[in-house]
Amino acid sequence: MSEDKQTEQKSEKVKLTAKEAFDFGPVFGYFFRKKDPNRHSNFNLKVMHGINKISIIMFLIALTVMIIRFISR
Predict the structure, then answer these.
(1) Is residue 31 part of a domain?
(2) Structural domain tally of the chain?
(3) Rounded to the nearest 5°, which phi and psi values hold at 52?
(4) pLDDT tens-digit readout, 9-64
(5) Which helix (H) or strand (E) covers residue 16, if one does?
(6) Ramachandran angles phi, psi of 21, nearest 5°
């Protein structure tokens, strides 16, 4: 019985396509979305989002440098 469940779980896994893997729409939407006037905002929330934006930018820069170094070798 457990073997049947394992084979069912393996067959249910969905493969990620290249188009889905490189979909940066949500990332750009995070940076360029409009402010929601109905949403309450405080200082802690603003700082948290600012730090998140900085970390995403740093990650993308580091990833770019790694790819350039890999290609140039």
Answers:
(1) no
(2) 1
(3) -60, -40
(4) 556 677 778 777 777 777 777 777 777 778 777 899 889 989 998 999 999 999 99
(5) none
(6) -70, -35
pTM of this prediction exceeds 0.70: no
- Residue 51: its pLDDT value, please? 96
From residue 23, alpha-carbon distances to 16, 45, 52, 66 in Å are: 11, 26, 19, 20
The encoded tokens of residue 65 equal 């440098």
Q: Is residue 47 part of a domain?
A: yes
**Residue 17 falls within a domain, yes or no?**
no
| The residue to which tokens 């939407």 are assigned | 29
Q: What is the DSSP string of the chain?
A: -HHHHHHHHHHHPPPPPHHHHT--HHHHHHHHPPP-TTS---HHHHHHHHHHHHHHHHHHHHHHHHHHHHHH-
